[in-house]
Inverse folding.
């Protein structure tokens, strides 16, 4: 039997898990909840691994497999199908979603233990995995949009998971509304595509687009721009990045799964999936690269000033997705997907490690109140260090080096690349090292400032995911070695059956080694500088922060370049003001009039209900008299 | 045999009915109200008799028997209820029995 026929089962397992937990979760014992929630993703992950192996050894015809389940609806020839489409790009994504998702679910079984919303948590998480799988497996853009909105909903539900605190509800609404701005652009883009192609089937559109639009055509420009709007919202890129740091209000596994590993990279997936549109509109593609560079720099600087462990990681996520956008913008499609995969490994691990630290510190998020955890939590420390190394791209030994260096090289060497883009990414890489190791040194080194209440190192369900992801953060990069070393590139070889290869400027290949050397040097300089600043002479940083300039800088970066304040003045305040002055318009009078009339009639009727029996009888008597008079005299 | 005109017969029934109705409306004592209801029932029964004699049929008289039986049952239930009300509230004044009104 052909194993690919089982593709429909991959999203079905999480859906079944969600249904069971949503319907019966309230009555299930917590062990059963944990088993159902984790097993549903585990089975999907196993199936994905099995299918992935088949895909590598005996790829299906044309390197893709399409499974039509049924026709969604059929209106006037426009008939989107519920169909799944498996190709190397979606294979990489479903592998990360199910595999990393499984590890995070496993971790959550211990992390969320004792929470009153245990069943609700796993139900939402399963629903999220289902929606995300629909998103990446969708064969047409409408089904993709369904998954897109599904993950947005789950993100909203899980950010506001602890809904009793109004701040969490506010963060959830903020995330939902800000991404909604992008989603609106996205759906307008879909209307445009339907109008042009009369179909939303992705492969059909990609096939026909070069025939319909010339390079630089207006139609292609708007379609690509509007889809980019959706991608920017979902992936928290400039100018819609403000929701992600606040989204850290959710439980830490949620941040790991949704706001680091999978959902926020949906924008990257969308652009990679519709890459033909971007190739047809070079202006928008350059915009993608510029957005990426600006975002990674802005978010990097913001991460440098944060105190909250999870907010550092949130800004770092925005910054790393900026790298992926940079790669997409210079036509290095495979590099973007490669960095997505590696990022999912190490960023999920960083969040899970942060969760363990926060658990040990009794919900303390401020890294400056932690310190010295290296000895007490060795396993968390070493895995966290491995992931931090990957984030900072320590050469040779960590996976992040291979993926980030590829992006930096392509930013310079690709035909669409330029020295400015490379410089932005290069400075960003240096900043990354600084904030990463600032986080590591402050949290794990120095003297211990707070005793450990409950050490999560004893929780096996929490430590196994850390170790597995830690190993992947080291070895994950070896599937794609730099061209300058060896021609061992199975990852891009696989993806290039779907995505076009990066076209390099002639004669650039030879430059790769010194670029690598340069990045390697700044990584070690960065680590040394942070070591000096936060371990050896912490007084130096404190002194700098006391100066007026230092404080202003710190405040500016701490608030994420004041984007929240800017949007507050530009959008939120005017809308509130407008709705306030428009509070009593004539429509209100109309409806208030209805209400008043009702209240008046009601008051009249209620006065008849006096409670005197004889009064009721009199009313009945007069009523009868009235009816008889009608019969007799009319 | 001198017959009373139909209109006079009906007038008597109407007067009886109005007396009963007035009694129900004016009296505050539940027992008197019950008695007034009986008068109204009798007015209705009288109309049946008049009808029966007018069309020379026995249906009217049969109906009166029904009404009598019903009235007896009604009195039994009504008096029992009044007794209970008196036990609970120590009064048979309807105007003071206003517990159903939502204050």
């Amino acid at each position: 039997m052909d194993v690919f026929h089982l593709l429909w089962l991959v999203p079905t397992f999480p859906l079944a898990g969600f249904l069971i937990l949503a319907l019966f979760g309230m009555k299930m014992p917590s062990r059963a909840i944990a088993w159902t929630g984790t097993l549903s993703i585990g089975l999907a992950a196993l199936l994905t691994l099995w299918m992935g192996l088949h895909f590598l050894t005996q790829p299906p015809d044309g390197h893709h497999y399409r499974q039509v389940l049924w026709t969604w609806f059929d209106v006037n020839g426009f008939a989107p199908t519920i169909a799944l489409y498996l190709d190397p790009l979606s294979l990489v994504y479903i592998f990360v979603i199910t595999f990393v998702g499984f590890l995070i679910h496993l971790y959550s079984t211990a992390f969320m233990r004792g929470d009153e919303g245990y069943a609700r948590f796993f139900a939402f998480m399963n629903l999220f995995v289902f929606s995300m799988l629909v998103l990446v497996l969708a064969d047409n853009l409408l089904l993709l949009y369904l998954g897109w909105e599904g993950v947005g909903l789950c993100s909203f539900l899980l950010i506001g998971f602890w809904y009793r605190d109004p701040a969490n509800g506010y963060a959830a609404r903020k995330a939902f509304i800000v991404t909604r701005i992008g989603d609106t652009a996205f759906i307008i883009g879909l209307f445009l595509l339907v109008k042009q192609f009369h179909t939303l089937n992705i492969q059909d559109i990609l096939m026909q687009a070069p025939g319909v639009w010339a390079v630089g055509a207006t139609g292609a420009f708007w379609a690509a721009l509007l889809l980019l709007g959706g991608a920017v919202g979902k992936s928290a890129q400039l100018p819609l990045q403000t929701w992600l740091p606040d989204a850290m209000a959710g439980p830490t596994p949620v941040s790991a799964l949704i706001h680091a590993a999978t959902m926020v990279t949906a924008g990257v997936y969308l652009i990679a999936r519709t890459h033909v549109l971007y190739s047809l509109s070079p202006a928008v593609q350059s915009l993608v690269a510029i957005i990426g560079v600006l975002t990674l720099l802005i978010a990097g600087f913001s991460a440098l000033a944060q105190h909250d462990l999870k907010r550092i990681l949130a800004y770092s996520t925005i910054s790393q997705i900026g790298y992926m956008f940079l790669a997409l913008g210079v036509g290095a499609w495979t590099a973007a997907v490669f960095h997505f995969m590696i990022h999912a490994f190490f960023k999920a691990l960083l969040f899970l490690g942060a969760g363990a630290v926060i658990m040990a510190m009794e919900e303390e998020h401020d890294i400056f109140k932690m310190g010295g955890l290296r000895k007490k939590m060795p396993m968390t420390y070493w895995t966290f260090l491995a992931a931090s190394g990957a984030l900072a791209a320590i050469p040779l030994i960590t996976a992040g080096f291979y993926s980030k260096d590829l992006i930096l090289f392509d930013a310079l060497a690709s035909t669409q690349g330029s020295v400015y883009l490379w410089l932005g990414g290069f400075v960003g890489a240096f900043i990354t090292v600084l904030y990463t190791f600032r986080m590591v040194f402050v949290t794990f080194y120095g003297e211990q400032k707070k005793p450990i209440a409950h050490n999560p190192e004893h929780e096996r369900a929490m430590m196994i995911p850390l170790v597995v992801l830690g190993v992947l953060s080291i070895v994950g990069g070896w599937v794609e070695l730099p061209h300058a070393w060896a021609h061992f590139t199975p990852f891009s070889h696989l993806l290039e059956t779907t995505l076009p290869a990066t076209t390099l400027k002639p004669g650039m290949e030879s430059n790769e080694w010194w670029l690598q050397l340069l990045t390697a040097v700044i990584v070690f300089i960065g680590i040394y500088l942070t070591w000096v600043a936060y371990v050896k002479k912490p007084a130096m940083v404190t002194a700098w922060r006391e100066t007026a300039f230092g404080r202003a800088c710190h405040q500016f970066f701490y608030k994420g370049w004041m984007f929240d304040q800017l949007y507050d003045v530009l959008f939120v305040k005017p809308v509130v003001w407008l709705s306030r002055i428009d509070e009593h318009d004539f429509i209100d009078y109309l409806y208030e009039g209805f209400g008043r009339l009702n209240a008046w009639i009601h008051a009249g009727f209620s006065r008849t209900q006096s409670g005197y029996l004889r009064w009721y009888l009199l009313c009945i008597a007069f009523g009868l008299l009235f009816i008889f008079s009608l019969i007799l005299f009319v | 045999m001198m017959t009373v005109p139909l209109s006079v017969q009906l007038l008597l029934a109407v007067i009886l009915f109005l007396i009963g109705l007035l009694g129900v409306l004016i009296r505050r004592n539940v027992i008197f109200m019950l008695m007034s209801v009986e008068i109204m029932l009798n007015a209705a029964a009288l109309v049946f008799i008049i009808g029966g004699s007018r069309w020379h049929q026995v249906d009217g008289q049969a109906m009166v028997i029904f009404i009598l039986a019903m009235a007896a049952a009604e009195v039994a239930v009504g008096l029992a209820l009044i007794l209970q009300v008196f036990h609970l509230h120590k009064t048979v004044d309807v105007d003071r029995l206003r517990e159903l009104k939502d204050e």
Observations:
- The beta strands of chain A are 65-71, 81-86.
- The longest strand of chain A covers residues 65-71.
- Chain A has a mean pLDDT of 89.
